[in-house]
Design the sequence.
C-alpha cells in the first residue's frame, strides 16, 4: 500500500548514512588488503592502516545496529515484524558483509605475520646446518623420528600392541584361509586392517561404524560393478571405466565436502574399497558362470 511504502522509505532514510558508512569502510579495508597482497608484504604502516580501518568498520557496524533499533522503536515495531522483514534481512546482510571483510583482513595479517616469522627460522636453520657436523644432522633429523618420549608412552605402546596383534591375526587368517570363505595366501584382510588404523581422538565407536559402512558399501559396489562389466570386451571395459570414474568422483566429493567427520570416513573407505574390488582382478568371461 501507499502508506507502507511511505513507512518503508522513511525507515530506510534514517539508516542510509550508517549503511553507506559501513559499505565505505568495508570497501576501503578490502582495498588495503588488495594493495598488501599485490606488494607481497604488509609493512608496519600498512598494518596500522588496516587495524585503524577495522576499528572504524566495527564502530560503523555498531552505529548502524544502534540506529536500526532506534528506528524500530520510533515506529513502534516489535522484535521482528513481518512487514519489515526485508529491512531486517538487508541490514543483517550489510553487517555480515562487514564481518566477512574484517575476518578477511585478519587472515591477511596472520598470513604476513607467519611469513615474517618463517624467514628468521629459515636463516637460523641454514646457519645451524653450516655449523654442525653430519653426525649432529643425523641425530637432529632422522633419529628424531623415533622420539623416545612418544615411543615409550604407555598409551602409544598399548595402541601399537593392540593393532599389531590384530594385524597378525589377520595375516594368519589370510595365510591359512578359512573354509570356503577365505582363500589361503590372501592379504586382503591384513590390508583392510592397515587402512582402518587410526589414532585420532574422539568417539571411536562412531568412527569405526563409519569405516565399516564405507568398507561394506564400497566392497558391494565394487563387486557388483565387476560382476556386471567383467567381460573382456570393449563395451564392458568402457562401462567399467565409467562406473569407476563415477563412483570415485562421488566418493571424493563426499570426502572433501562433508562437514560431518563421519561422512569423511565413509567417503574415503568407499573410494578405496570400491576401486580395489573393481580393478584388482583382471577381466574374465568366466565370472558369471563361476
Sequence:
Amino acid at each position: 500500500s501507499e502508506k507502507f511504502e511511505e513507512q518503508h522509505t522513511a525507515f530506510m532514510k534514517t539508516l542510509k548514512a550508517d549503511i553507506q558508512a559501513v559499505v565505505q569502510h568495508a570497501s576501503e579495508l578490502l582495498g588495503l588488503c588488495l594493495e598488501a597482497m599485490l606488494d607481497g608484504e604488509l609493512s608496519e604502516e600498512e598494518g596500522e592502516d588496516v587495524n585503524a580501518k577495522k576499528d572504524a568498520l566495527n564502530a560503523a557496524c555498531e552505529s548502524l545496529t544502534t540506529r536500526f533499533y532506534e528506528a524500530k522503536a520510533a515506529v513502534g515495531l516489535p522484535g521482528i515484524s513481518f512487514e519489515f522483514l526485508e529491512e531486517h534481512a538487508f541490514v543483517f546482510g550489510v553487517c555480515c558483509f562487514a564481518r566477512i571483510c574484517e575476518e578477511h583482513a585478519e587472515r591477511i595479517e596472520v598470513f604476513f605475520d607467519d611469513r615474517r616469522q618463517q624467514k628468521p627460522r629459515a636463516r637460523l636453520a641454514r646457519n645451524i646446518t653450516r655449523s654442525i657436523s653430519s653426525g649432529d644432522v643425523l641425530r637432529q633429523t632422522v633419529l628424531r623420528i623415533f622420539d623416545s618420549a612418544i615411543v615409550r608412552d604407555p598409551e602409544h605402546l598399548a595402541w601399537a600392541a593392540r593393532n599389531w596383534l590384530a594385524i597378525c591375526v589377520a595375516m594368519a587368517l589370510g595365510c591359512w584361509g578359512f573354509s570356503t570363505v577365505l582363500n589361503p595366501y590372501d592379504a586382503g584382510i591384513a590390508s583392510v586392517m592397515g587402512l582402518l588404523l587410526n589414532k585420532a581422538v574422539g568417539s571411536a565407536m562412531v568412527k569405526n561404524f563409519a569405516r565399516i559402512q564405507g568398507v561394506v558399501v564400497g566392497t558391494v559396489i565394487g563387486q557388483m560393478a565387476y560382476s556386471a562389466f567383467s567381460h573382456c570386451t570393449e563395451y564392458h571395459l568402457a562401462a567399467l571405466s565409467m562406473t569407476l570414474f563415477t563412483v570415485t568422483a562421488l566418493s571424493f566429493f563426499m570426502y572433501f565436502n562433508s562437514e560431518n567427520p563421519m561422512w569423511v570416513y565413509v567417503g574415503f573407505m568407499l573410494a578405496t574399497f570400491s576401486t580395489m574390488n573393481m580393478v584388482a582382478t583382471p577381466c574374465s568371461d568366466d565370472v558369471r558362470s563361476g
